[in-house]
Every structure is written in structure tokens, then in C-alpha cells.
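Re: magnesium ion structure - here you go.
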Amino acid sequence: MVEAAHEIRLLPDHVINQIAAGEVIERPASIVKELVENSLDAGARQVTVEVTGGGIDRIVVTDDGCGIESAQLPLAVTRHCTSKLIDADQLSDIATLGFRGEALASIAAVARMRVQSRPADQPHAMEITVNGGVAGQRLVPATLTPGTRIEINDLFFNAPPRRRFLKRPLTEYLHVEKVMKQMAFCHPQVRFTLINDDKPAFTLLPATDDKSLARRFNALFGKGVVHEARTLSVVAPDIAITGWVGTASAARSQNDVQFLAVNGRVVRDRLLSHAVRMAYGDAIPVGRHPCYALSLSVPGPLVDVNVHPTKAEVRFREPRQIHDAVLASCNRALQENVTPAAAQPVAEPRGGARYRFGRSIDANGMDAADIRLFDQRWLVELAGDGIRIRDAREIIRRQVMQSLWAVVADAGPVAMRPLLIPQPVRNKRLAGLVEPLAWRGFDFSQLGPGQLALRRVPVRMPTIDYKLFCSLLSQIDDVCEAEMDTVLADTIAAAWRPPDTPGGLRTLLGIAATLAPPVAVTELGADWPELLINDHG
Ligand code: ADP
Ligand code: MG
């Protein structure tokens, strides 16, 4: 945090060129985000946001931070002027939320802006106004307690086409509220107040201990959601993780309660959400979404925040380590009271032929070196006095998850091979997923509305009946990007063509041994009288 008012300077050209700049102002919520970030960078302990008409008509952000010196006010609203970053070297270790020096200028370009500010050592505040990028250069005195007050009126007044893209005030307000909640989650030590159309929406008191933190989480996410959650507080050498994960039973049909923050910055991150999702294993069915809010602290040099125009994405230097740390921490938190997926008994096979085990096993023609596959699914082998049963589909599913995960970690291109016969998929809901699927090595071409053809598949995949795979994909109801790996792995496991040779089955057992956590094994001793196995295989 910047604790004292620093000089604002124009960034040197070479630094400007290295900053992943872009259009940051899409809607009122993006303005609120930038302004609140500035307040936090200024060391504010209290931030108040007032919106009118969903923020389209008016946004006012007031803070008690370090303020901007009068002489610096014109620079503050000039593009690429910042007090936060001086050297390109510092781009690799950014401690502030802002650093590009363009938020105020970008906002001022598309609205009417009034900035009033007073550093603590200044006897009174000064203000500057900018309308649609045109500064009314004159500074005038204003009345304000130490800190900064920024007022934005008539968003996109000078850009009617963009104004038409805004949604109803209520929708825009909900976006503002979400941004506020994200900020409040990332910065528990700051008091946040949100006022909507003159009515207080919420005030969140600073959290100083576990109790007040829990109260804040309740206020932010709702008692119902947090009630059953496991809180997390993990400190490891290169990462600290705090927050909570909801239990599997609290999973929702929407992914609307998922917050991830890295170094005080809310991010969308495939790698992290993937890690959290995997921590639940099978406990959450496809189509349901876990609830969580996690805040990570990683040493600055190990994370690059300068990769996205709105800084909503980050890049980790050691993605695999971060992924595994999050997976392990969430997993541990969840296990504290939840039965781990791997410890649940294998579903009991039903119907079919009756086999006796124990001493009479030889009667079934199995000898010690034998492995058998029953019902295209259950891997059965002799083990000492009894037998060992493993779910072959589960092995395949985990193996696929693992290789999809490798794709996420490396983000490199996946080797693909063409299908001899492209397979049709009829599913309107998959149209938007063509790109993320291709990225995972499943290449579709669009045949028509809701009609796709699978043309290429990853080289490294188990033997799959792609015709069956595509017909299963056609039946999928709904899937979002975050669920993609799980859905693919489930579908592939269902369309997997099992090997029928002892060699193939042994390979499968070998794979099972490499999967962590180990694939569920059920051992039945000699005293087990009998087991029903459906033997179509
Ligand atoms: P950036 O945050 O990337 O530096 P901005 O355009 O958001 O760029 O802000 C420009 C400068 O204005 C900041 O570097 C900071 O010095 C000053 N500033 C903006 N908002 C505040 C605030 N609320 N309190 C103190 N200084 C501020
Ligand atoms: Mg900023």
C-alpha cells in the first residue's frame, strides 16, 4: 500500500509500451473497481461508494487515504501518469493494485468527472473537473476531510453507442455490488459502505479477529452459504491461503459464489478454479458448482499481474506448485468432516451371475496371475486369500483428468490426431465451447446451428469409442468452461473401450498405481461368502 502521497509522473515511453494496456471502462462496475483500487492503494481504511441509477447516472467514491496534492491533480487525470511505478523492472514485482496510470484518464474520457482531494497536511481540498476528456484546467478549492472524493456523472454521455450496450440500472447495480463484495473480501481490514439510490446497501466493519472475520464472511456471502463451510488458513513457504470452501452438499446449480483473489486482487483463473474443483473429487456431481472464497498471497516476483487489460488474470511462475498447494489445502479442509471420495465403498455390483469366492475361487477358473474385467468395468484380481476389486472407469476418468490438467498447467498446444470418420454432435449448448474444447485437444467444426462434427482428438487419450462419445456429448444438458474437464473425463470414461487382454488390464492396474489419491480398492477376504457380479464381459 502507498502510505504517503507520492509524486505523480508521466511514465517513460518504453514502460508504457510494456504495459498490457487496454480499454478498461465497460460499465459502472469497472469504474467502481478502478476507483476503489485507487483508494486501497492510497492506504484508505474507509471506502464509501454511492451509486445512482445503477451507476450510469452517478458514482461517488470517498476515501480517507493519503490524498493527491493540489499541484498533482492535473497529472492524476492524465493518461500514463502514476505515482506507483517508475521502472520497467518493477513490473515484475507489483505491490499496488494500480500501476498503469490510465484509469482516471480513461474514465474521464467517457464521463463527467470531478476529483476532490486533500492530503492530511493540506489545510483544505482542491478539485479538478474533466468532461469527456476535456479538462476544465482550473483548480478550485473544495470542502473535504483528508482523503479523496471522486464523482462520476453521465457515463458514456459522449459515446451513445456504448451507452446503449449498458443493461438496466438494476443489472448494472448488481455488477457494482459484486465488485464491492470482491474488494471487501480481499481487503478485510477496510471498512466498506455501499449506498444504492440513497439507500444503504451494506456497511462492512473491519475484521480484526476470527470472530469479526466470520461475521464479515456471513454478511458478504450469506449465512446459509457460509454456515457449513470449512475455513482455511494455510501458510507455506511460497504461498499463504485464507478463506473458506463450502462443503460438497452446499454446491449450487450456478457458479456465482466463487471468489478467488491473488495478492489482494480478484482474479479469474482457470488453474486455481481447476485446483479447487479437483479438491472435491467426485463429491460434487457434474452440473453443480462448489462455493468458495479464497485469497492467496504469493511473493510478488512469483506472479505476473501485467498480463490482462483489467488485471483480472495473473500468471504464476510455478503454476504446478500453486495448483497443488491449493488442491491440497482445500482437500485437507474438506476432509476434516467430509468422507473423502476415495474412502467411499465401491458401488456394489447388482444382478447377473453369482460367483463364490474364498476357497472355492478356483472353481471359477481364476488363478493367481489372472485379472478379469466384469461388466466392462470392474477389475478383479486375486490377492492373497481374497480378491481385489477396482473400478476401471474410475481409473480412466482420473487418468483423463490428469492429462487435461497437464494441458491447464502447461497451456501449450496439445498434439492431435484426425478421426478417420468425423463424428456428429447435435447440441446447441456446446456451440460456445468449441474453442475451449479445441484448446484441450478436441477439435470440432461447426456444421450448422447446434450441429458440430468432432474431427480431431488428442493423441494421448485412452481407447475411446468416439461414436458413443459424441452421442453422449449430444445429450449433455449444460456445461460451463469450469466444468469442462470433469464433463469430458466423465464422458470419456463412459465411452471407454476396455482392453480384453491380460496385458491391457495389467497396464490399467499400472496406471491406477500412479494416480493420487489412490483409486478406491475394495478387498474382499476369504470369509466373504459371496459377491454378485454382473458378467456381460
Ligand atoms: P494508477 O492507479 O494506475 O496509478 P490511476 O489513473 O488510477 O492510475 O490514478 C492516477 C494517480 O492518481 C495514481 O497513481 C495516484 O497517485 C492518484 N490517485 C488516484 N486516486 C487516488 C486516491 N483515491 N487517493 C490518492 N491518490 C489517488
Ligand atoms: Mg488506479
